[in-house]
Amino acid sequence: MEDLIAIKNLTKAYDSRHVAVNDITLTLPRGRIIGLLGPNGSGKTTLIKLINGLLTPDSGSILINGEPVGTKTKAHVAYLPDRTYLAGNRKINECLDFFGDFYADFSREKACEMLSGLKIDPAARMQTLSKGNREKVQLILVMSRNADLYVLDEPIAGVDPAARDYILRTIINNYNPGATVLISTHLIGDIEQVLDEVIFMRYGRLVLYTSVDNIREQHGKSVDAYFREVFAC
Amino acid sequence: MAWELDSERPIYAQLAEKIKMGIISGQYPAGSWLPSVRELAAEAAVNPNTMQKALTELERTGLIATRRTNGRTVTEDAALIGRLREETARELARSFLHKLGELGYDANSAAELVQGLQEREEGPGEKQTETGNESVKTDR
Q1: Among A23, A90, A123, B119, which lies 20 to 30 A Cα-Cα from B135?
Q2: Rounded to a whole number, what is the distance in Å from the CA of B17 to chain A's nearest CA?
Q3: Nearest CB to A172 within list B9, B10, B47
Q4: Sorting pLDDT into bands at 50, 70 and 90, what band is A4?
């Protein structure tokens, strides 16, 4: 099977001094859970936005399932942005309708099951939810799609540790061998156990792409500890 | 509920070790079916690919075997399990002796220490039980 994502010499600059993504070449296989790690401002979110077609590259290319980023690829990529886009006065039920209309691969049953697992009432309006619960609802919507690629931008930053465990378990349980999950986060220690591989970025460049167990074998330390070493301030 | 893993060593190696311990201790008896990769991964709260790798590792040692597409079973070779059990026990004893050695105990005084503990726990004088057990006693 072909690679899920093939990125070639990808560059995106916001102005001449700020090159957010700098000549990245990377191919990602199917069936992996991959951490996208890097300090603030290293280009993680820009890379994610390029993968989702929210930004257009200055140069280079991205292929998903062999297709250039566009309407076709968006139907198979489930994206959790770093901020909300669901209207506050909507009820959760209405958000479920919205996702059902938008995405052919959305499973309402799955979403309802997860909502009840986290004891969130689907009749509640988004704006009445706590910040953490709002984040959970968004993640549930995204994970309830049967996509080839899940791109999660900081999915666990705002939720409590118990919900974090539930979310990670949700990601593991929904794992499908044909799909890849790309997670950007600062909370490496919390998700290290569920990752296969990690991508380290710095100043818009790719520093490292390897497996978690490789780092542990080669350096005798966790990815979290290794990250602190590589990016020591 | 996740399995406790330390942060230095490869995760798959630690998972393999835990499952091996489960087999040695009889949690997964000889000849029995193992839970699926997905179930084990969810239980341990780790990535299924990593769990897969751990199981492949154990297959290599002959401790578990794949039954076509049905899943995996623990070996029926009780002698192999017994051997691994003894090996593991020896390893634990060695590290125990090593730690006591750092405190100045030699093998003989370590043995005496163990015997002393055992006598105290099994002996008739059960007054030395910890406070945690006290409440259980009064219940009876």
Answers
A1: B119
A2: 15
A3: B47
A4: very high
- Tokens representing A78 are 């489930």
The DSSP symbol for B3 reads P
Rounded Cα–Cα distance for residues B114 and B15 (Å): 30
Averaged confidence pLDDT in chain A: 90
User: What is the DSSP pairing of strand B71-74 with strand A33-37?
Assistant: unpaired
Q: What is the ipTM of this complex?
A: 0.74
CA proximity to A4, closest of A34, A32, A28? A28
pLDDT in tens, A71-119: 999 999 999 998 888 888 899 999 999 999 999 999 999 999 989 988 9
| Interface contact A165, partner B, CB < 8 A | yes
CB pair distance less than 8 Å for B49 and A33:
yes
Q: Delimit the domains of chain B by residue range.
A: 11-76, 79-125
Contacts with A, B 41-80, CB within 8 Å: 41-42, 44-50, 53
Residue A206: strand pairing partners: A201
- The answer to whether residue A219 neighbours chain B at the CB level (below 8 Å) is no
The residues that bridge with B67 in the sheet, in sequence order, are: B71
Contact B48 A175 (CB under 8 A): yes
Which CATH number does B11-76 carry? 1.10.10.10
Q: Which residues of B touch A224 (CB under 8 A)?
A: 7
**Could you read off the pLDDT of A113-149 as tens digits, one per residue?**
989 988 999 999 999 998 888 888 998 999 999 999 9
